[in-house]
Write a structure and sequence with these properties.
The protein folds into two domains: 108 residues, Alpha-Beta Plaits (2-Layer Sandwich), CATH 3.30.70; 138 residues, Alpha-Beta Plaits (2-Layer Sandwich). 34% of the residues lie in helices and 37% in strands. It has seven helices and eleven strands. It has a five-stranded antiparallel β-sheet. Strand 7 and strand 8 form a beta hairpin. Helix 6 crosses helix 7. It is globular and about 55 Å long.
Length: 249
């Protein structure tokens, strides 16, 4: 099950928000949820949620989006965020409190419904715009990759999808090769940035990527499915810490 919660937050006093604070939001989130589940998340590899922060009004307000890739994550995390008593958030490392102004839960979608949407209900789109809302990066051969490599994009999405979609499996070296080979970058507007994470600067990129998918319709449907799934999962590394958030057009 895929779902999301969005919280509109406003800092107290004269403080302002920025997207690099997502790491602090992650810390606050771990304080809110059950300690046993927090421990489970700490020990797990791929996380069953992603989260990121976007700013409004010059940082005087921020929109915090938390996406859930499993029903358990929605129950353990989402229900805590939606609880009536959840009226504010404390970022301990910064000593900053944010007041909750609005809460909204996005209607859940099952993996079956998402798969059916692209393989049965809709003609797949061959032109897709991917907007990276927060810095994105990959790790390959022990090094950061700061350009949107198609193989790494699809590999990241396949790994996350297969980790949490119990009924379905998409991961296949052959499918990954065909996806990468049948997709080309038609245009882009990107810039390199550093994402600040616990005193470490992670080289990354942010901006827009225009893709064209060729080949058989089944291949186009798979690309549509994975990239749309990416709106919940994020792409690349550290998506639970605010990186790799995307939107699709």
């Amino acid at each position: 099950m895929l779902s999301a919660v969005k919280l509109l937050l406003e800092p107290e006093g004269e403080e302002k928000c920025n997207s690099n604070m997502a790491t602090l939001f992650h810390g606050a989130l771990m304080e809110i949820i059950n300690s046993n589940y927090a421990g489970h998340l700490h020990r797990s590899g791929l996380k069953p949620f992603s989260q990121f922060v976007t700013c409004e009004e010059g940082g005087r307000r921020c929109l915090w989006t938390v996406n859930f890739l499993t029903e358990q994550a929605r129950q353990e995390i989402g229900e805590k965020l939606l609880a009536a008593g959840m009226t504010g958030l404390l970022l301990k490392d910064k000593g900053l409190r944010l007041d909750v102004r609005e809460k909204r839960e996005i209607e859940p979608v099952s993996y079956r419904e998402l798969t059916q949407k692209f393989y049965l209900d809709e003609a797949p789109q061959r032109k897709i715009r991917v907007s990276f809302l927060t810095p994105c990066s990959f790790k390959s051969a022990g090094r950061y990759v700061i350009f949107p490599d198609l193989h790494l994009i699809y590999q990241s999405l396949m790994n996350k999808y297969d980790a949490f979609a119990d009924e379905f499996s998409l991961k296949s070296p052959e499918a990954l090769r065909h996806l990468s080979g049948h997709t080309r970058i038609k245009g882009y507007s990107l810039r390199s940035v550093n994402y600040h994470l616990e005193g470490v600067k992670i080289p990354s990129f942010i901006g827009r990527l225009d893709l064209v998918i060729r080949g058989p319709e089944t291949m186009v449907s798979l690309a549509n499915l994975l990239l749309t799934f990416g709106e919940w999962s994020g792409i690349g590394i550290k998506t639970a810490l605010g990186m790799g958030a995307i939107s699709i057009e």
